[in-house]
Amino acid sequence: MDIDDWLNRIDLEAIADPTDKLSESEFFLGLASQEANRERFRWLISAFLNAAYSFFETSALSAFFRFTDEGGEPHADDDALEVLRTYVVVMQDKKRPSYVKTAGLHEVTKQLYEFRKKSAHHTALSIMATGSSLPADYHFGNMKGEGTAALEFCTNAMKLMRTVQLELDVC
């Protein structure tokens, strides 16, 4: 296949914008902010947590492969990695360089990763109604008096992600 044929076959509109996971997170948080039904709220918050997690994962992967040299070898964007490493631990497997993982480092990302890990790998999110003003009174957890306000937490996580994206945009 020649390069012209290859380029003609690419559907550029099918390629998501680099900020897609940020937009996806905003989408699910926006829907959750209006959802009083506990089951649907749980699903939307779970989707938000997964999109937020993916935001950090894909940002880290992109940072490792942002540049290439004249021979086509990838080189990391050290400035972007420095930004990300303020908020998450970023690890690259030396034997499999395309395998990049992140872990929570900042107070918000630690909690985000913990909530997401529980909902993705252990069980469905536990969501308590702590009052009658729903969805604002939904909390993560199942022990009365010990939960975390779900929308407040997710809103703070969203603010942090926007800050990270702004910092990445200037790299």
Strand % is 5-15%
First-residue to last-residue Cα separation: 36 Å
Helix content: 40-55%
Radius of gyration: 19 Å
What would the principal axes of the Cα set say about the shape? elongated
| Helix segment tally | 6
Mean pLDDT level: 94
List the secondary-structure elements in sequence, H or E.
HHHEEHEEHEEEH
Task: Tally the beta strands.
Answer: 7
What's the story with the biggest beta sheet?
A: 3 strands, antiparallel
Counting copies of identical and different chains, the oligomeric state is single chain
Low-confidence runs: none
Structural class: alpha+beta
User: Strand arrangement, largest sheet?
Assistant: 5-6-7
Short descriptors:
6 helices, alpha+beta, 13% strand, elongated
Which helices and strands occur, and which strands form pairs?
Blueprint: H1 3-9, H2 20-32, H3 38-64, E1 67-68, E2 74-75, H4 78-84, E3 88-92, E4 100-104, H5 107-122, E5 127-129, E6 138-140, E7 148-149, H6 150-169
Antiparallel strand pairs: 1-2, 3-4, 5-6, 6-7
Helix pairs in contact: 2-3, 2-6, 3-4, 3-5, 3-6
Structure explained in plain terms:
The mean pLDDT is 94. The radius of gyration is 19 Å and the shape is elongated. The protein is 53% helix and 13% strand. The strands form three sheets. The protein has a three-stranded antiparallel beta sheet with strand order 5-6-7. It has 171 residues and is an alpha+beta fold. A hairpin with a 5-residue loop joins strand 1 and strand 2.
